[in-house]
Amino acid sequence: MEISLAEKVSQNPKLLENFNLEEKEELKYSWEFWGRPKQLEPKELYFTWLVLSGRGFGKTWLGSQWVLSKAKKFPKCHIALIGESAADVRDIQIEKGSSSILKIASPKFFPVYEPSKRSLTFPNGSIATAYSADKPDLLRGPNHHFIWMDELAKYRNYQEIYDMAMFGLRLGDFPQLLITTTPKPIQLLKDIIKDKKTFVTNGSTYENRNNLAGSFLEIIKSKYENSSLGQQELYGILLEESEGALFSRKLIDETRR
Questions:
Q1: What residue ranges of the chain have pLDDT lower than 50?
Q2: How many Å apart are CA 204 and CA 230, to the nearest integer?
Q3: pTM to 2 decimal places
Q4: Where are the beta strands (DSSP E) in 73-230?
Q5: pLDDT digits (tens, 9 = 90+) for 116-158
Q6: pLDDT of residue 223
Q7: 3-class DSSP assignment, residue 78
């Protein structure tokens, strides 16, 4: 398993002996330092970065770091944060979660959060705005440079939200979309994977074992390791159909009204 620079340093502390106190302090907030190789932005050009992973892989942390990186690199850019509900965006992506933007942002680049405006404003003028997947009309009108969609496969109206988001992803020279989700067998994910402009990252729960409780890993492995649900929720594998399904996803999509 590939490890982060932070894990390498823990094995060999001498790697930081030439760093001063300020540089060491800034490492606390460094994406490149803490991220495992799969959690770092692809070097290849992409329009969509699709992160399909198991529970606990660290995809929310990855998403928050991606937003902070884009906001800092492109002053005055506009970023959309989309979650299944308003509470999900607020709690998981922005404010309360241990990997949320406000929890991992550096004091040197800390945004002002205005809940009433659903927005984060960064020191250089970049703005990230929250949108709820259950209110797709909010995405009619606003345009963005970058969009982070979290847990897309859980959205009840995933196709409508995706379409509305795409119509507004048109600012700047190279707009980009990040999707972080545990997969479900929906046609939209299959179509995104097939797109030549998509870079796909697959990751399992076990890749983040150093940050997860040992008892949790032991229990889920014994219960779900050899099941279809385990393949989906632990290894981030996109299954063709849910186990025991009476009606195929393809049939449902083709007969939807």
A1: none
A2: 10
A3: 0.86
A4: 78-83, 112-114, 119-121, 127-132, 146-150, 176-181, 198-203
A5: 999 999 999 999 999 999 998 999 989 999 999 999 999 999 9
A6: 67
A7: strand
Please list the alpha-helical segments (H only) found in the chain. 5-11, 21-26, 31-34, 59-73, 86-88, 101-104, 158-168, 187-194, 214-224, 228-233, 249-254
CA distance 18 to 26: 14
For the chain, the C-alpha Rg in angstroms (whole number) is: 19
Asked if 89 and 82 count as a contact pair (C-beta separation under 8 A), the reply is yes
- Cα separation of 169 and 50, whole Å? 16
| CB-based burial, 118-139: b 16+ in 10 Å, e otherwise | bbbbbeeebbbbbbbbeebebb
Please give the backbone phi and psi of residue 69, each rounded to the nearest 5 degrees, phi first.
-65, -45
Q: Give the torsion through C-alpha atoms of 122, 127, 132, 138, to 10 deg.
A: 160
Alpha-carbon distance values, 89 to 57, 147, 252 (Å): 19, 13, 29
